[in-house]
Write a structure and sequence with these properties.
The complex is a heterotrimer of chains A (532), B (308) and C (308). In chain A, 32% of the residues lie in helices and 22% in strands. Chain A contains 17 helices and 19 strands. Chain A has helices spanning 2-21, 32-35, 79-88, 136-148, 153-156, 181-185, 195-205, 253-261, 276-281, 310-319, 322-329, 358-367, 385-398, 412-420, 438-445, 462-473, 477-494; strands at 59-64, 93-95, 102-104, 107-114, 117-122, 159-166, 169-174, 216-222, 226-231, 244-249, 267-268, 286-300, 335-336, 374-381, 403-410, 426-432, 497-509, 513-514, 530-531. In chain A, helix 15 runs antiparallel to helix 16 (462-473) and helix 16 runs antiparallel to helix 17. The longest helix of chain A has 20 residues, at 2-21. Chain A is globular and about 70 Å long. By secondary structure, chain B is an all-alpha fold. Chain B has a single domain (28-58, 99-306), classed as MetI-like (MetI-like fold, Orthogonal Bundle). In chain B, helix 2 (24-37) crosses helix 14 (274-302) and helix 9 packs antiparallel against helix 12 (224-248). By secondary structure, chain C is an all-alpha fold. Chain C contains 13 helices and no strands. Classes of the chains: A alpha+beta (532), B mainly alpha (308), C mainly alpha (308). Chains in contact: A-B, A-C, B-C. Chains A and B meet through helix 1, helix 11, helix 13 and strand 15 of A and helix 3, helix 7 and helix 14 of B.
Chain lengths: 532, 308, 308
């Protein structure tokens, strides 16, 4: 009896395991016709020539991890919101994700009168999706609105005012010399909104009727599940291939992968690094990868506790081997960090690495007054497995120098508040930057931004502050590059972070998807996508 | 007066309607005699004893090295090794021996189960006994508190408690323990209600026993059956709850090898490295299986009428 | 009967106020500033102070709680801190989805649990009984999220029988309902079994047998009705568990329900959503159990008489 019980039980378990683990992953993609969205099944758009290819799919399903918090550009800036806003709104200047070059957007040309004055000529013949013409008033209103919003104020408050010459000529007056202004104008939060509608609806209502000039028009939302945008048939430029894009929410990364693998969706955003190998081996998915602007770091509390002593920070830097951490926690994707600015920034330099040297590390600890080692708390947030993995790897590595790391995985809201208040020893966060180097250093290292804004290592260093200020106002590119090189070295000396990892976009699509590029900004240009 | 509900859930199988204040030892002896006869129950007991031995000998089976605890000896050159050979359960994503983690995890998981059940049981039994014994306003207030706890979905309550108190083993156990209180309270109250009016209680009262003595010496012993059954089931529930919290990321802190956390963390490897999810899964299933078998056996043993 | 229902309704009120108090207290003591979540990391100190005043978050605890209760009494649940939409819109949209999921899970667990439980009891100690017990225990011991992933890999990826995610068609509901329903099915099965065993041994069943009635008729017409009374109660209590289980299941199957949304809202410190949502869930739970009690009182006149 006992034996048969055991046998039955183990047989059951083995059977279930066998059935589930022999996943071949070669399930034929469900037929394209039924999966192409479930909105109104209208055939090719009415206008646009008679030769509409009727059997080519023009509806795309894009999977993200969360529901967009708001479609209002100046409110929250979470990833899903940014991705959808890029479809609906256009910016004055447009950042091409393939070339990383700034291109004309709603502004056709611009020139700097001086470091604080920027003249821009706006595009003519552009209409909002509600039929209103696009004019200088919309630009001025959009910028004022962005400065009014508490979410975006600090990003844009250097714009003192917008001088309107006529409907299509404006001058931006800056309160200080600010070279990254063109990149600032290309950020999604400055997507130009229709002034009439936004004025009328205010901050409370605009997100429900987001009117922009973009290639797509907001169509509908199912709360918590999907957002649908449809092609703007009156778009001023080349019409996108796709007639409709559905942004669906699939919280679990492995499930996003499965949905693309089985042909139920076309693009799965951000898969797990540990699924990269499977993606490469699976015929029914195509993996798109590209280094992106995410910088993952291990932060130190430089203001209080044992890590306020730079020797302890150095000791840790000398005791850590980054490559094995990257290979394990990030499954080898991306690359080990070389400094505070990812290699995609054109002024990024590789700072001198801290040599792996356990003896030196122990020496430094002894000098700092911890000859017998010490105990530190390493915080990271719940829901990010890679960070939890890093924490455990760091914990294991630091045992070598007798540093006892206590890993604590903390609920997100508590984590943000506690790290902003400086209650931590070590912590882990990521920073997603933009091409201009200013955006990679200002929030993280300027003493003005200590705490919640972004400087959670509590770095207060006059030299770093000075170089950040100088860098943003310098017109001459050569001198500017030098300033940023000095700055990166100064940050490396101060060592508020272990420059752990530069991230990589990992996106899967079905083989039928063409023209897709995994934008390093995290917001791909989906209007380039078409089906074979 | 409303909560007959649970009285009917559990009382018919547990409370012996014609229970007499027997000599304790002989009662336990009878129970054990009947328990021993049940093969499934003995099998459950065997499983749990084996797991306890595994937990106690974890340090011997999987000893620490010079600097690492036995459950966290990483070997990044030997990750995802399949079961067999040097690592009978294989290795995980950090190259740690899964058997070592299961063995050390037995300690944590059983500990979590035990503490959680203690928290829920002590609080729940106290509340339930007071409520059932005194009735009236005390009963009403206590039962409304229990209703409140019941009405908030357990996992939401646990997540809120962990969010409020912070992470860590202790707070997870508190969160799961608090959420388990209503079950005991309602069962005990129902049992007390059915015992309270019986003659032997009257008798005790008439010889001048005070309320405390009556509750602890006369009433509670007669409610032991459903309490023990609930406790064995509760330990199983506690381990699963810790796993659920780990899924949300609020469970036991790494690198502690709690089984539920191991399962939650390794779910991303489910398709590629089945052994990583299988062993913690089987471990959880085994302990729950064992505890339930014991629970069943005890329930039957406490209630002679159920025997053939 | 009316009096009974009224009295039961009356008891819901203090429970709901208690739920409000518990959840309000938990949100109050939880670290993490909702104002920062609303205004963003970059907000200036004066904006933070102003908004905090505007939302009344600078008031003493009891004043804030009083305002919350007063607003709730007027069905004013406020707007979400993060999305700016009215709480009723956010919750109202997701709620039916979760209810549907929970209801379908109940149906599945009842359809599986009760017949198996009856069969187990009738064929006590046979291979069938033992087999059902083992499968049932496995059902209880498998964590929701684990089962969910397994079912997806097996039935969606490998066999292609069911869609993986979504909630539009009945086919979409099969796997999620099973994922939640299985563990409840096991509990209901075990409850039905022991309840049936209890009833089968009663005198009136013996009498029926003695009168030479067919066994199947005895089971169906005499035993079942009485045995199901406690089972109904368990189903009612399970409903609360199912709402909790929905949290994990909704995440795995990407169902935009209330459970997942509540956990997200706790993480975002979206107090109005948390408070409104928990209150709604508590209300539903209380109502379901009120229905159970009514049903129960209807079946068993003894209970009704207590309220005369």
């Amino acid at each position: 009896m006992k034996k048969s019980l055991i046998r039955t039980m183990s047989a059951l378990v083995v059977a279930v395991m066998a059935l589930t683990s022999c996943a071949t992953g070669n399930q034929a993609p469900a037929d394209a016709g039924t999966t192409g969205g479930n909105g109104a099944d209208t055939t090719a758009p009415a206008d646009g020539g008679g030769q509409a290819a009727s059997d080519v799919r023009d509806e795309l399903i894009f999977l993200t991890g969360a529901f967009p918090v708001t479609l209002d550009p100046v409110m929250m800036n979470d990833h899903p919101s940014a991705q959808i806003r890029l479809m609906i709104f256009e910016t004055l200047v447009s950042l091409n994700p393939r070339t990383m070059e700034l291109e004309p957007g709603l502004a056709v040309s611009w020139d700097f009168e001086d470091a604080q004055t920027l003249n821009m000529e706006l595009r003519q013949g552009v209409y909002f999706s509600n039929g209103d013409p696009f004019t200088a008033d919309d630009v001025s209103f959009t910028i004022e609105r962005a400065i009014e919003s508490t979410h975006t104020r600090s990003m844009f408050e250097m714009i003192e005012y917008v001088e309107i010459h006529d409907d299509h000529n404006i001058t931006l007056h800056l309160s200080e010399p600010f070279m990254p202004i063109l990149h600032t104008l290309s950020t999604g939060q400055l997507g130009i909104v229709n002034a009439n509608v936004a004025r009328e609806l205010g901050f409370d209502g605009f997100h429900e009727n987001p009117v922009g000039t973009g290639r797509f028009i907001f169509d509908s939302q199912v709360l918590g599940d999907r957002t649908v945008v449809v092609r703007n048939e009156n778009y001023w430029g080349e019409l996108p291939h796709l007639r409709q894009i559905t942004f669906r929410v699939i919280p679990e990364q492995p499930i996003r992968f499965i949905e693309v693998e089985t042909g139920n969706a076309d693009i799965g955003f951000s898969i797990l690094p540990t699924d990269v190998q499977r993606a490469e081996e699976t015929d029914s998915v195509v993996l798109h990868r590209h280094l992106n602007f995410s910088y993952n770091y291990i932060g130190f509390n430089t203001a209080s506790g044992p890590l306020a002593d730079i020797r302890v920070r150095q000791a840790i830097a000398h005791a850590l081997q980054l490559q094995p951490i990257i290979d394990n926690a990030f499954a080898g994707t991306g690359m080990p960090g070389t400094g505070p600015l990812t290699t995609l920034h054109d002024m990024s330099i590789a700072t001198e690495p801290f040599e792996f040297d356990l003896d030196r590390s122990r020496e430094l600890l002894a000098e700092a007054g911890f000859p017998d080692g010490l105990s530190l708390r390493f915080w990271t947030n719940a829901g990010n497995q890679a960070r939890a993995d890093v924490a455990q790897l760091v914990q294991s590595q630091l045992r070598q120098v007798n540093i006892d790391v206590e890993v604590e995985i903390i609920e997100w809201g508590t984590y943000l508040e506690a790290t902003a208040a400086g209650e931590h020893d070590m912590f882990m966060l990521g920073w997603i930057s933009q091409p201009d180097p200013h955006f990679g250093v200002d929030m993280l290292f300027h003493s003005r931004n200590v705490g919640a804004p972004g400087n959670r290592s509590f770095t207060v260093n006059a030299e770093i502050d000075r170089l950040i200020e100088e860098g943003k106002g310098e017109l001459d590119p050569v001198r500017r590059a030098q300033i940023y090189a000095d700055l990166q070295n100064a940050i490396r000396e101060e060592l508020p972070h272990i420059f752990l990892h530069f991230g990589e976009e990992l996106i899967v699509t079905t083989p039928e998807v063409r023209g897709f590029f995994p934008a390093p900004t995290g917001s791909p240009w989906l209007w380039e996508v078409y089906f074979e | 007066m409303l909560t007959n509900k649970v009285a009917v859930d559990e009382a018919p199988v547990g409370v012996n309607a014609d229970a007499k204040p027997r000599k304790k030892r002989s009662q336990m002896h009878d129970v054990w005699k009947r328990f021993r006869k049940s093969r499934t129950a003995m099998f459950g007991l065997f499983i749990i004893i084996a797991l306890i031995i595994l937990a106690l000998s974890a340090e011997i089976l999987a000893p620490a090295d010079a600097i690492n605890p036995g459950y966290d000896i990483q070997d990044l050159g030997n990750t995802f090794a399949p079961p067999g050979g040097e690592h009978i359960f294989g290795t995980d994503n950090f190259g740690r021996d899964i058997f070592a983690r299961i063995a050390h995890g037995a300690r944590i998981s059983l500990y979590v189960g035990f503490v959680v059940v203690s928290i829920s049981m002590v609080t729940g039994v106290t509340l339930g006994a007071l409520s059932g014994y005194y009735s009236g306003i005390i009963d009403n207030v206590i039962m409304r508190i229990i209703d409140i706890l019941l009405a908030i979905p357990f996992l939401l309550l646990a997540v809120s408690i962990v969010a409020a108190l912070g992470p860590g083993l202790r707070n997870v156990m508190i969160a799961v323990g608090v959420a388990g209180i209503p079950g005991y309270a309602r069962i005990v109250r129902a049992s007390v209600l059915s015992v309270r009016e019986q003659e032997f209680i009257e008798a005790a009262r008439s010889v001048g026993a005070n309320n405390f003595r009556i509750i602890t010496r006369h009433i509670l012993p007669n409610c032991m059956a459903p309490i023990i059954v609930q406790a064995t089931m509760g330990m199983a529930g506690a381990i699963l709850s810790a796993a659920a919290l780990s899924f949300i990321g609020l469970g036991i802190q790494p690198p502690q090898p709690e089984w539920g956390a191991m399962l939650a963390e390794s779910r991303r490897f489910m398709r590629d490295h089945w052994h990583m999810v299988m062993f913690p899964g089987v471990a959880i299933a085994t302990v729950i299986f064992g505890l339930n078998m014991i629970g069943d056996g005890l329930r039957d043993a406490f209630d002679p009428r159920l025997k053939k | 009967m009316h009096k009974f229902i009224l009295k039961r309704l009356g008891m819901m009120l203090p429970v709901l106020v208690g739920v409000m108090f518990v959840i309000f207290t938990l949100t109050y003591i939880t670290p993490g500033d909702p104002v920062m979540m609303i205004l963003g990391d970059q907000a200036a100190q004066e904006d933070i102070v102003n908004l905090r005043a505007e939302l009344g978050l600078d008031q003493p605890f009891l004043v804030q709680f009083g305002m919350f209760v007063a607003n709730t009494m007027q069905f004013n649940f406020g707007t979400s801190f993060t999305t700016g939409r009215p709480v009723l819109e956010e919750i109202g949209f997701r709620f039916p989805t979760t209810m549907q999921l929970a209801a379908m899970s109940v149906v599945i667990s009842v359809l599986i649990g009760i017949p198996l439980g009856i069969l187990s009891a009738v064929k006590q100690y046979t291979i069938f009984d033992n087999g059902a017990t083992i499968i049932g225990l496995l059902g209880v011991s498998i964590p929701n999220f684990w089962l969910g992933m397994m079912l997806i890999i097996l039935f969606s990826v490998n066999l292609g029988w069911f869609p993986t995610t979504g909630f539009e068609t009945p086919m979409h509901w099969v796997l999620p309902s099973f994922t939640i329903g299985i563990s409840s099915a096991a509990i209901i099965m075990r409850m039905t079994r022991s309840s049936m065993l209890e009833v089968i041994r009663q005198d009136y069943i013996r009498t029926a047998r003695a009168k030479g009635q067919k066994e199947s008729k005895i089971i169906v017409s005499h035993a079942l009705k009485n045995a199901l009374i406690p089972v109904i109660t368990v189903v009612g209590l399970q409903f609360g568990l199912l709402l909790g289980g929905a949290i994990l299941t909704e995440t795995i199957y990407a169902i935009p329900g209330l459970g997942r949304f509540m956990v997200e809202s706790i993480q975002r410190r979206d107090y109005p959503i948390i408070q409104g949502g928990v209150l709604l869930l508590a209300l539903v739970f209380s109502f379901v159990n009120l229905l159970v009690d009514i049903l129960y009182a209807f079946v068993d006149p003894r209970i009704r008489s207590q309220y005369k």
